[in-house]
C-alpha cells in the first residue's frame, strides 16, 4: 500500500476535484483505492455521492475515537474505490486532537492497521497546515500538490514546503513530493500560460507534464454525486485526469503499482 496526500493550504485550487478524479482513474486501472476525506466540508464524500446517512462513522471517528478505518469506509459507485467519509464533526478535530500524545500519528496508525485492503490511499486535505494536514503528511509516502494557474500560484508554496521539511525531519523521513499538478489551465488566457511557464522554470521536473484544463464538466459532476470520469468520461477534464493518473503511476514506487502494469 502506498499513501498519497493531496495538499495545498490554499482553498479552491483543485485538491478535492483531483482526489475524486484521480481516485476514479486509478481504480479504473485496476488499483484498489481508498479516498480519505480529511476536510470538514466533506466535499469529496458529497462529490462521490455518499449521503449523510452513510456517514455514521467517519474520518472523525477514526482520528478521535477508536474506530478502525475498516469499520467506517463506504463503497462508492466506482468499482474498487472506497471512501472514508467526512462530516462536520471534523471541524472540531484540530482542537480535540491536541489532547492526544500521539496526535500527529493517529491517521497513520489507523491506515497502516488496514494496509492490505488497498493498493493506493489518497488523502484529500483541508485548506490549512493544521493538525489534520499534518496527520495526512505523517501518514503519506508521497505528496501531490495541485497548483492553480493564477497570478499568485507560487505564493504560499514555500510555507507548504517548509512544513514538509519539518515533517520529514521530525516524523516521516520517507515523505517525498510526488509532483505538482497545474490545475484550471485556460489555453485562451495568456496569463495562465505565463504562470505555467514561470512555475515550470522555478520548480522544474517536479511539475507533471499533464495540465488539468479549466473545464465546466469537472465542476458540474459533483452536484450529480459522480466523478467527472463517470459523468462525462470524454470531456477534456476527464481525459486530463486519466493522463495525470498514468503519470502518477509512473512516478510511484514500483511494487505498489504492480497491479496496474
Ligand atoms: P479545493 O479542494 O482545493 O478547495 P476544489 O477541487 O473543491 O478545490 O475546486 C474548487 C472549485 O473549482 C470547485 O467548485 C470545483 O468544482 C472547481 N474546479 C476545480 N477544478 C476545476 C477545473 N479544472 N475546471 C473547472 N472547475 C474546477
Ligand atoms: Mg477541497
Automatic annotation (TrEMBL):
InterPro entries: AAA_dom, DNA_Partitioning_ATPase, P-loop_NTPase. This is ParA family protein. It holds the Pfam family AAA_31. It comes from Sphingomonas longa. Residues 3-177 form the AAA domain.
